[in-house]
Amino acid sequence: CVSYMQKVEVLLDTVLSHYHTNGRAHLPWRQTKNPYRILVSEVMLQQTQVDRVLPKYKLFVKKFPTVPVLAQAPLSEVLLVWSGLGYNRRAKMLHSAAKMVTSERGGVFPKTAPELEALPGVGPYTARAVAIFAFNKPEVCIETNIRTVFTHVCFPKKKIVSDKEIFPLIEKTLARALQRGIRPKDFYAALMDYGSHLKKSGVRVNNKSAHYTKQSKFEGSVRQKRAARLRELLKMGASEVELEKLLHP
Question: With 33 labelled, which of 8, 41, 160, 223 sits at a CA distance of 20 to 30 A?
Fold first, then answer.
């Protein structure tokens, strides 16, 4: 993508201009450096739209404002607050991560991507997102909106694009952003917001990604049956062991 790299300044200017005029600074997780709250937002945003996450995020951090509070809460209470977001295993993993940070790290959140990735349910992207947005680390990461920007700008005619092709471009663009004095957290927030803007403008590149998997239907799925069973168990006041068993991979 030589032609793209020659125009990196133009891309940065475009992305940052959009960010300064239409950025989503109102999002509550954009207004905090608290790694716990950023982790909550990142876990909630997995396969879930921002509009659905917003009310649940606010409710969750109000109910469980700190890592120790979440760690000490019964799993049933955590699942009740999470109810409606789907993919309930995410709530269980978040609960387990809070327990690990509390018991093994004295409540002190890890700051590096490898340490963050050691937490239950925290994968490569989530670990790097927390490192970026909480600690302003210059990590290289990719998610759906970032993928949209680079696929649309750099590979407009290519039918299949792999993340392996995109990663070096992100790395080089980030390096240039840092040279211009742009903070990693602002660089990535700008990319994500511009990617979201492109999608709303009708740009669809998911099917060009070698890593794209269409989300399976919820109706009639195992997930739907498991969610229904979970609601029953919560109404019955099931034990933590029963809830863990249902949510076990």
Answer: 8
Mark whether 42 is an active-site residue: yes
Burial code of 52-70, b = ≥16 C-beta within 10 A, e = fewer? ebbebbeebbeebeebeeb
The model's pTM: 0.86
Alpha helices in 106-211 (DSSP H): 113-117, 124-135, 144-154, 163-179, 184-200
Contact 44, 57 (CB under 8 A): yes
Q: Which of 42, 117, 171, 242 is labelled catalytic? A: 42
What does the alpha-carbon distance between residue 128 and residue 142 come to, in Å, rounded to a whole number?
A: 9
**Per-residue confidence (pLDDT) for residue 71, from 0 to 100:** 96
CB 76 within 8 A of CB 243: yes
Query: Which position has the higher pLDDT, 54 or 156?
Result: 54
Length of the chain: 249
Instruction: Tell me how far apart the alpha carbons of residues 79 and 77 are, in angstroms, rounded to a whole number.
Output: 5
Structure tokens of 174?
A: 């980030």
**Residue 51 to residues 58, 74, 189: CA-CA distances in angstroms?**
12, 27, 17
At residue 119, the 3 state secondary structure works out as coil
Q: What is the pLDDT of residue 203?
A: 85
Tokens of 164: 């392996």
Of 63, 60, 57, the C-alpha closest to 27 is: 57
Instruction: Please choose, from the candidates 99, 102, 101, the residue with its C-alpha nearest in 3D space to the C-alpha of residue 115.
Output: 101
